[in-house]
């Protein structure tokens, strides 16, 4: 039986960085399975990874047939999943009423539904002592005007992750919600296509390498939530103290 890591959103940004660091930091893996839509980007990543076999699964996680495909591959290969990273996701900023219905529903579909379904399909293959990384965000700490739907999807990811962590604690599976602030990736090409990015986001922009490295350290310490950097740790404390409607007012 093969020991694998499975990473969604592996063609870019945080997911891609997870693949690189998993290959270096987790010994004894036979394969890393990588999921995203852009096959060419996954091929480039495969070439870059030395020492661990990379298996490409070009899937669109907003399409129903992709889940059937994943279910079948898992049933056929019956791998032991040592690490699952759910990093596929996107966000669109701007007021809710000016957003397209497709974008609003798409964020829920990918950031919540796909994350949940991939976790559900993979869970039967997850072994004792394994790790599950769920990409949430600091946007999940409080309601965020102009990132209304996105922030709500990330609150879901965070809540889902913390509750699942408790359910799986008896099996020694470590589940962690990764909640960084702004991270320098392709995410912002799409998120702020329609408007100027807020200045404080530019100031707080983090390096994906550091965010992932911190997440891996935190998961090994069995933390429930990984938050990178002083600014975001402070933001989290403020969001715990103040009511959501106050935070929304300040941010709005
Ligand atoms: N960057 C940031 O500031 C932060 C990001 N996050 C979260 O981290 C996660 C990764 O984001 P980040 O790396 O920054 O963003 P990127 O845009 O760099 O990466 C997003 C990844 O999701 C994949 N993806 C997008 N749509 C689909 C789809 N329909 N099916 C399958 N895969 C898809 C993309 O691959 P492809 O296009 O090839 O399908 C890509 O690999 C997201 O959940 C994001 O919300 C959290 C906090 C901060
Ligand atoms: N945390 C970032 C996205 O998830 C942001 O605040 O833009």
Automatic annotation (TrEMBL):
Keywords: Oxidoreductase. It comes from the Bacteria. Its EC number is 1.1.1.298, 1.1.1.381. InterPro entries: NAD(P)-bd_dom_sf, Sc_DH/Rdtase_CS, SDR_fam. It is an enzyme of class 1 (oxidoreductase). PROSITE patterns: ADH_SHORT. Gene3D superfamilies: NAD(P)-binding Rossmann-like Domain. It catalyses: 3-hydroxypropanoate + NADP(+) = 3-oxopropanoate + NADPH + H(+); L-allo-threonine + NADP(+) = aminoacetone + CO2 + NADPH. Pfam families: adh_short. NADP-dependent dehydrogenase with broad substrate specificity acting on 3-hydroxy acids. Catalyzes the NADP-dependent oxidation of L-allo-threonine to L-2-amino-3-keto-butyrate, which is spontaneously decarboxylated into aminoacetone. Also acts on D-threonine, L-serine, D-serine, D-3-hydroxyisobutyrate, L-3-hydroxyisobutyrate, D-glycerate and L-glycerate. Able to catalyze the reduction of the malonic semialdehyde to 3-hydroxypropionic acid. Belongs to the short-chain dehydrogenases/reductases (SDR) family. This is NADP-dependent 3-hydroxy acid dehydrogenase YdfG. It comes from Anaerostipes amylophilus. The lineage of its organism: Bacteria, Bacillati, Bacillota, Clostridia, Lachnospirales.
